[in-house]
Structure prediction request, 522 residues.
Amino acid sequence: MDRSKPGSHPGSIWGQLFRTDYTGQSNLWPVVVSLLLIGLVTLTGKLYGDYLGITSIGMLFLLPVIFAAVRTGIYPAIFIALISFVCWDIFFIPPVLLLTASDPRHLITFLVFLLVAYTAGNMTELLRSRAREALQRESQTRALYELARELSAAAEMSGLGQHVVNQTAATLDAEAVLFQPDDTGKLQIAAANRSLLDLASSPNDLLAAQWTFENNQPSGLSTTMFTGARGYHVPVQTEKKILGVLSVKPLHDALEEQQRSLVAALAGLSALAMVRLELAEEAQEIKSLEASERLQAALFNSISHDLKTPLTSILGSVSSLVDEGSLYDVEQKATLLSGIKHSAERMNRFVNNLLDMARLESGYMKLNREWSDLQDIIGVTLRENQDILREHTIRIEMPDQIPLIKLDYALIEQVLTNLLHNAVKYSPLGSEILISVTRQAEVITVTIADQGEGIPVGDQEAIFDKFYRLQSPHNVSGTGLGLSICRGIIEAHEGRIWAVNRAGGGSLFNFSLPLEASTPQS
Ligand code: ADP
Prediction:
């Protein structure tokens, strides 16, 4: 810290005369100007002495004293008071050109000069020290504010530590190190404001920092503990625990009381930010734990519904056919076999969904894109799901000409299947399901419209999240995976999928796929 900064200590009297004040201004010029003023007053006194009289001239000599006192401080003002008095005495008090102190009245004048110099100088210094304190307070508040702002944006511990040491070092013109304990409780350097630091290599400072950590008290410079240490060490602590130690070694002066409080305040801010990050990390862990618990619950749920139920029904039908096959006529056998097929398809769909989800999650979903006819995919999907769709009326609306689209045939079929299954699951038996295809300039949009209950507006985005299910009044079983798989597949095709409510009741599930520039004409 240089002498112009707050907290400079006064040196010798000569140093006092010509030191610089807190604004960086030197005392030299005001003293020189005061000396010139003394010269001017002497000259004026000589020219107009007869008219002015000795007392008035004495009063005029107060001007340089006041000027010096207001512009500098006590010492320079007393120095100017002395010179002023000597000049007045030598040049104006008979016998002229001799320094006489015979008349006690002159001594009184001298005392008045000194008193003015002292009082005005003192006032100036008081004002200066107030201004200096205000400046210090302002810079401290700014430092704390800056650090708080930086820390609130820090998203990880290493970045946070670096902000703390950089801000501390810049504010105090010092070396700064943040120590944090390792698993054994031994302090390690977590961040330093530059690479080669005295603080990090001095055994005394390392010992002092460790002591501070263990005893929760400041140590080192300006304290009574580890007086040989070169740095000041404060605990970085919250009410409950000590998270580390902030160490500061001023590059020039010692640390003043106010600066030590600033270090403590910076350490306190850092502790709060560290706790915030720790809590955020914990919350993240809890969230992923919750997600994996939900995954487990959903898997158990689905396995019992979508795997166990059809498997039981297959086993039942197959056992009947094997054990009592001869008892059934052709029609009964056909019913049992169709039940087996239906259950096997259900299991197949479920396993496919799980596999797709796993592939999407692991990033292994590779698109096998080929020029395909949407009309064809819709036809195949309807055929393959005719059993499920049997209880609903299916209507299709599409333009005569649909361009071919480069897509993964099987995956888009999977999307259509999932959307149709939902339309069946979430709308009343016998209601209509409308499949429409529309073409805009650069996209083709497919819409599945049902006449079910629709989806609450707030959930229209969330239903595409994994395991997100709405409470259904009819207790429809499901896993909450179908729509998230649809979204994964459509987004892999650079398309978009969304749901809205249908005017007049029901929901509209739309997905759009981009048409490529080089689309071959069908
Ligand atoms: P699942 O149907 O197995 O629960 P999905 O991911 O396919 O999982 O759907 C998520 C949720 O979205 C469903 O639980 C349901 O509440 C809602 N949903 C999906 N399709 C429809 C639809 N056509 N009408 C009303 N709600 C729907």
